């Protein structure tokens, strides 16, 4: 692994730490780590500078840029595999977005339970965070290996946040994301089709900024049309039932 560049951007009410590591895996790759400051729910606002130092406007214009949200679930692997098989071109630049939780509690040095982060020494905090970074790299390695096998240029964006869907939704206008791929399980898709979904994929699909196409992938297939069709059918049936109820009420009113 080549040199590591760390850049910290200070603003009036927050700080964003960017860790960029070049040539991590594949033809071209890097890791950008965005850490939230406790004073803000999310480290971006509409006036923030671009957090990805590896992205330039010229690169965006020249390359077909695709973002894939990845995590610990099998659906993330399926989403990436679908992307590599269906969307990748020789000019594609792929970004893997991984949101990991903030660290509030650490293992008790005495070996019993967890204790607040501010009750342990800075050295213990850094040691624990280093272990967590190692776990993240191990997790991301399987995704990067898939990208490497497909010979696609890839970077990884790591975001520290307890609100996964919100973190990704807020990232869309910041990075001007136009293509986003998200994996979902069969149970999540069933809930989305019945309009009872409140999972990550559903939240992002419903709240993504206009101009960003969100592809939902389940078991290796894009299911956007199925979801949209089910919602449209449900809406149509609801309107039909409402009309029938109104008609029934009208008949009753005139039946003296």
Automatic annotation (TrEMBL):
<protein>
    <recommendedName>
        <fullName>UspA domain-containing protein</fullName>
    </recommendedName>
</protein>
<feature type="region of interest" description="Disordered">
    <location>
        <begin position="29"/>
        <end position="51"/>
    </location>
</feature>
<dbReference type="InterPro" id="IPR014729">
    <property type="entry name" value="Rossmann-like_a/b/a_fold"/>
</dbReference>
